[in-house]
Amino acid sequence: xxxxxxxxxxxxxxxxxxxxxxxxxxxxxxxSPVDKLVTIKAITVLPFTDNTxxxxxxxxxxxxxxxxxxxxxxxxxxxxxxxxTPFLSDLEKDPxxxxxxxxxxxxxxxxxxxxxKTENSIAMTLALFLAKDGLxxxxxxxxNIQETNFSDLRAPMKSLLDKLFQQIPYDGMILSRKDxxxxxxxxxxxxxxNGQDLTVAAIIKIKRHPKFNFLINSEKTILGKxxxxxxxxxxxxxxxxxxxxxxxxxxxxxxxxxxLASFSNKITSTKAMQNYIPGAKPANEHSMSGSTxxxxxxxxxxxxxxxxxxSGGIGLMKKDSGSAFSEDxxxxxxxxxxxxxxxxxxxxxxLIHQGITSIGDPDNQANLSLNQSAYELLxxxxxxxxxxxxxxxxxxxxxxxxxxxxxxxxxxxFSTLRxxxxxxxxxxxxxxxxxxxxxxxxxxxxLKPKLKERPGPSGSSxxxxxxxxxxxxxxxxxxNFYFKGILKYDNFSTSFAREITASSLGERTVSVNLGxxxxx
Length: 520
Description:
Helix content: 10-25%
Oligomer: single chain
Largest sheet: 10 strands, antiparallel, barrel
Strand order of the largest sheet: 13-14-15-16-17-18-19-20-21-22
Number of helices: 7
Strand content: over 45%
Order of helices and strands: HHEEHEHHEEEHEEEEEEHEEEEEEEEEE
Structural class: mainly beta
């Protein structure tokens, strides 16, 4: 046990130091299904409705369409509707209407409006629906507008549209990346300044109203920081200052928090903004009464070397020798495992497992002490469809040894078994929600495993078989730490061509383990 533990620690330490000197690269673009759902590049403005036979609806629709066409953030997609124009209330009740429109137009969102005129005022409503699910995403209303002339309505309509767009949980997106330079769909009209620092994030979770579906809030994970190099009327060019992982900032990554907050000592000139360094102390800091200077933002270092884990659990074990057997034995166990990433494709894995229980002796009704132990060292080849926490399929092979040691046998039909050999198999893991929840499964077999028995063989010309199956889930606790739950099935079996004391041997264990993994 002590020797094998030393070997595990040495392997992990050696590989970590080797990796620290290498350039580890991953395809680490984080875009969760939620992030893709709320990505808006193209918008379709549907015909509006009113209670004045289209007098206000037509003008209102033309104004909103013009605003979308003139906004460099989005591409306007036209649509020709056949039949009755649907009311806003119809679309809120039945998402299939918009899902049907989505088949005929390459749009990510639809804007729908409604105008109601009373004797002395006008009520206007704007709604934004997502094309991918057909559901309401944002809604704004202005219920008591006193102006009734269209020329006087342009300002409140513009304000209403701006408020609708502000409910989108990001300010802009990255259009392209080359080396450390990126292009953004933000412009001067968004208030972007040369030298300004921008935060890049991915949307990992959204909360919508349980009945009406509009957005309540969202959760994001920070991918890095940009510094603006140039701003024009339609685009912004920036340089990556810091990145959570190499390559994590890519096309469609979101820009958040681009609007500068106002303070008493705010920077007002472009020149001052160009010389601004986040976290740097100003020369007159001692005279800034009541203010504090924040530290420069630093991301939590991303995992680049591998992971280590520990888990413990309870299982049910059955052991048999010919016609003699002992079943429903409760066996607690503990497992230590680790892996290191040699590069984007190759990895090394090590494991130590220990379990202990007592079983009934079929010969004399006494209890026997049984200890399980397993040690393995495997190499893996990875097929990645994402970053560290993305979908991954891994082929593994290496040496493994399992021992089931029976003590206090005096004598007994049950003997100590040791299976060893080349272990091969595969493991697949995929995220469910961003990188918060992941699920996976693995299957392993031994190639022509060898069996050693103590105190003596139960037969000759043995045919040995080893099968191991795992289903597991990971839940993010904090950055780089994950809780894990594992359902395990292990089956070790042997049949003999010539019997001495038994024609077959076997040991099967089903267990549930809980633990924690740390990615480093």
